[in-house]
């Protein structure tokens, strides 16, 4: 059975079986304004957890993407932050500047429980 990578990414609405018990501690949380002004800087905060931070079980990276309204090819890769177990916590802040409305996607990788995704719409005025 071959599946697309997207089918292997957990989200709160697609988690089933054992993954349901991991939703709270693994789904990234995106904090960003609902509306921003075109071209003006704003902060986006992505956090995961509470979550263990050991060599055997930790969040290894967080990626941030933006699906821009009306763009031919999406998403736009904003950043990938790699985290070192025992040293770095998955609490990240990004400064963005958008020209068009769209959807932010945060994807995190847990060394034991795979890929998890969250999304947040941001309107540009």
Name a few traits of the molecule.
125 residues, Immunoglobulin-like, single chain, five-stranded mixed beta sheet, 1 helix
Description:
By secondary structure, the protein is mainly β. The chain has one domain: SOR catalytic domain (Immunoglobulin-like). Helices cover 3% and strands 45% of the residues. It has 1 helix and 8 strands, in the order αββββββββ. The strands form 2 sheets. The protein has a 5-stranded mixed beta sheet with strand order 2-8-7-4-5, with no helix packed on it. A 3-stranded antiparallel beta sheet has the order 1-3-6, with no helix packed on it. The mean pLDDT is 97.
Which parts are unreliable, with pLDDT below 50 for 5 consecutive residues or more? none
Order of helices and strands: HEEEEEEEE
Shape: globular
The CATH topology assignment is Immunoglobulin-like
Total E-strand runs = 8
Architecture blueprint of SSEs:
Blueprint: H1 23-26, E1 29-31, E2 35-36, E3 41-47, E4 59-68, E5 76-82, E6 91-97, E7 102-110, E8 114-124
Parallel strand pairs: 2-8
Antiparallel strand pairs: 1-3, 3-6, 4-5, 4-7, 7-8
Entry summary:
The chain is mainly β and 125 residues long. It has one helix at residues 23-26, and strands at residues 29-31, 35-36, 41-47, 59-68, 76-82, 91-97, 102-110, 114-124.
């Amino acid at each position: 059975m071959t599946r697309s990578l997207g089918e292997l990414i957990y989200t709160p609405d697609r988690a089933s079986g054992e993954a349901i018990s991991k939703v709270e501690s693994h789904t990234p949380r995106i904090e960003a304004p609902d509306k921003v002004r075109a071209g003006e800087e704003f902060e986006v905060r992505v956090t995961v957890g509470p979550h263990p931070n050991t060599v055997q079980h930790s969040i290894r990276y967080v990626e941030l993407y933006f699906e821009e309204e009306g763009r031919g090819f999406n998403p736009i890769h904003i950043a990938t932050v790699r985290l070192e177990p025992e040293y770095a916590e998955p609490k990240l802040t990004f400064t963005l500047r958008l020209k068009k409305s769209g959807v932010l996607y945060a994807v995190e990788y847990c060394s034991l429980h795979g890929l998890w995704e969250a999304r947040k719409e941001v309107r540009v005025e």
